[in-house]
What we know:
Elements: H1 10-30, H2 35-47, H3 52-68, H4 76-95, H5 98-116
Helix pairs in contact: 1-2, 1-4, 2-3, 4-5
Amino acid sequence: MHRLAGRLPDEDLAELDALVTRMHTEVHEEGEIAARTDRGFHRTLHRSLGNELLSELLDTFWSAFHRVRAPGLGTAADGEELARMHARIVEAVRAGDAEAAEAAVHRHFDDIRGRLSPH
């Protein structure tokens, strides 16, 4: 994950900012983040690595995740927190802070695991 920090072109960072803004809007208007927005964020985040296999694996994961997740997996407040998690990833990458970027991605995936685990 450390290769993300400091490697994204400015246009990718701008696209990630726009996707985070869209996430907040979707949470307020629809109650949750749209699957296409979430997938778009992760595609943009990883495409500059130039690792086609990683991109395909991540795309497959997000496709499967959004097919199996229950509608309304969380509340609007959960959606806001998810949007903030994505924003923290972008902030760390923009700052070139590899450790913070990796930690933010891990927190995001830990949150996903927690949402999908039976309680």
